[in-house]
Amino acid sequence: MGDFAVGAKALAISNGKVNLSWWEAFARGIGCNWLVCLAVWIAISAKDITGKIFGIYFPIMAFVASGFEHCIANMYFIPMELLLKGNAIVVAAAGMAGKLNNLTPQGFFVNNLIPVTLGNIVGGSLCVATIYWLAYLRKK
Fold first, then answer.
1. CA nearest to 21, candidates 127, 103, 81, 111
2. 37: closest CA among 62, 20, 12?
3. Tens digit of pLDDT for each residue in 116-139?
4. In degrees rounded to 5, what are phi and psi of residue 18?
5. Cβ neighbours of residue 128 closer than 8 Å, sequence gap 6 or more
6. Cβ partners under 8 Å of residue 47, min gap 6
7. d(CA 140, CA 138)
8. Among candidates 87, 88, 85, which has minimal Cα distance to 77?
9. CA 5 from centroid of its chain's CA atoms
10. Nearest-CA neighbor of 96 among 107, 85, 105?
11. Rounded to an integer, what distance in angstroms lies between the CA atom of residue 38 and that of residue 16?
12. Is 58 helix (H, G, I), strand (E, B) or coil?
């Protein structure tokens, strides 16, 4: 589509994801799952379908717009680009020839999946679950 523009943009995004520093990927993972878990809590607490839809829409829109990292989304997105980087036409359309050194299975696991997954765990467990536990369930 559009002279391979969709594949070229996706390739550039994935290359950026595997070139994050460990701490940046970890921090983006915290922010992402904080918003995703808030969306789940809002949806659970909403009484009707409209409330559930609006409740999940804004936190998830914020995580996508902010460029945060989610390990489950990346488990689809980056392996797709690992396959796509073998297409020379798409690589040329992206202007990424010779710049995809970290877009490898090892780069995916070490530079993205591990720190993002740990960040997602911290974001969901500490930033949402622990705060809700402290606010509502903790015994005085």
1. 111
2. 62
3. 999 999 999 998 888 888 888 777
4. -85, -5
5. 33, 34, 37, 38, 41
6. none
7. 6
8. 85
9. 21
10. 85
11. 26
12. helix
pLDDT at 1 over 70: no
Question: For the segment 79-116, what is each residue's pLDDT rounded down to a tens digit?
Answer: 999 988 888 888 888 888 888 888 999 999 999 999 99
Say whether pLDDT at 2 is over 80: no
Instruction: Identify which of 25, 57, 20, 18 has the alpha carbon closest to the alpha carbon of residue 39.
Output: 57
Average pLDDT, the chain: 90
Task: Report the length, in residues, of the chain.
Answer: 140
Q: How far, in Å, CA of 85 to CA of 22, rounded? A: 23
In single-letter form, the type of residue at position 129 comes to A
Residue identified by tokens 């780069």 is 107
